[in-house]
Design goal:
Elements: H1 3-7, H2 24-52, H3 57-65, H4 70-84, H5 102-121, H6 135-156, H7 177-188, H8 192-205, H9 207-235, H10 240-282
Helix pairs in contact: 2-3, 2-10, 5-6, 6-9, 6-10, 7-8, 9-10
């Protein structure tokens, strides 16, 4: 008898208490605002002002880039409060109060990098003004690199050196997407600890689920690093107007396309996982 069938005499793998279809309106609103904030708004403001004024490039970049992060700041404040409040509903399993989850810590690091770029890029001398086109590629470097590193560590069987959300220090590394999915659904999606527990059970019971996370992780991390590298090269070589379009437009367009493809990949992976469970259960004597 297999480990899966032994632990769960059911048609499918351990269920996750969160259906994206039930939250599609909220997801569409939040991500629509984020895309507007981090991709569309800076571009929509930049070109009309550029052709209707005689502002220096650094002043123009600074004005249009200043709208970046407004929605993100609101979401950051809300998820901070959910992690730091007295009840532990949104916090990682086994963590103490005032313990931030993995996604929040990474989000914070990314925000600091972006703030530094914007401060340096907006300097009066204008020597590094092109940095104002780099926030999105920089975030892609950060998340793409971390996901890729975690996936490699998982495949090599490494153990964690620090706590990663609900995964304690010294436990086997999980794929890079695992803590991101866990934290976003548990905190931003209000799935809370029940979701973290269910995700852990699903992960431990289903090797196919683990494999799917690794495949989707590579699908995101490697292209993210390649596109970020291409964007960086273009941002620092093409004329200023094109540099702004590349830095703010290309990552957003790529992200939307990849998100739709990912939905199809995940749906196919979940069907394969369920079919494998059904076959194993039918073979149990």
């Amino acid at each position: 008898m297999s480990a899966q069938s032994q632990n769960f005499g059911q048609v499918g793998p351990p269920p996750l208490p969160y259906n994206l279809r039930d939250h599609k309106k909220k997801i569409a609103i939040v991500w629509g605002l984020i895309i507007l904030d981090s991709c569309i708004a800076p571009l929509v403001l930049f070109y009309p002002i550029a052709y209707a004024s005689n502002l220096e490039w650094q002043d123009l970049f600074a004005i249009t880039t200043s709208v970046f992060g407004l929605v993100t700041l609101v979401e950051y404040t809300k998820r901070s409060w959910r992690l730091l409040r007295k009840d532990d509903f949104s916090r990682p399993l086994g963590s103490k109060r005032k313990w931030l989850d993995y996604f929040h810590l990474t989000f914070t690091i990314g925000s600091l990098i972006v703030i530094i770029e914007m401060i340096i890029g907006a300097a009066p001398d204008g020597q590094l003004v092109r940095l104002l086109s780099m926030p999105s590629p920089s975030v892609m470097y950060l998340f793409g690199g971390l996901i890729l590193q975690a996936d490699i560590f998982y495949l090599l069987g490494y153990k964690t050196y620090i706590r990663i959300s609900s995964t304690p220090k010294g436990a086997p590394h999980k794929p890079g997407l695992y803590p991101i999915i866990e934290d976003i659904v548990a905190n931003d999606g209000a799935g809370g600890k029940p979701y973290r527990e269910a995700l852990m059970a699903r992960y431990e019971a289903s090797p196919l689920f683990q494999q799917m996370l690794v495949k989707v992780g590579f699908f995101w991390s490697i292209p993210a690093l390649l596109i970020a590298t291409a964007c960086t090269a273009l941002v620092f070589t093409v004329p200023y107007p094109w540099a702004y379009a590349v830095g703010w437009g290309v990552p957003g367009i790529w992200g939307i396309i990849w998100a739709f493809v990912t939905i199809k990949l995940v749906q196919a992976g979940l069907r394969k996982e369920k079919e494998a469970w059904s076959k194993e259960r039918s073979g149990v004597t």
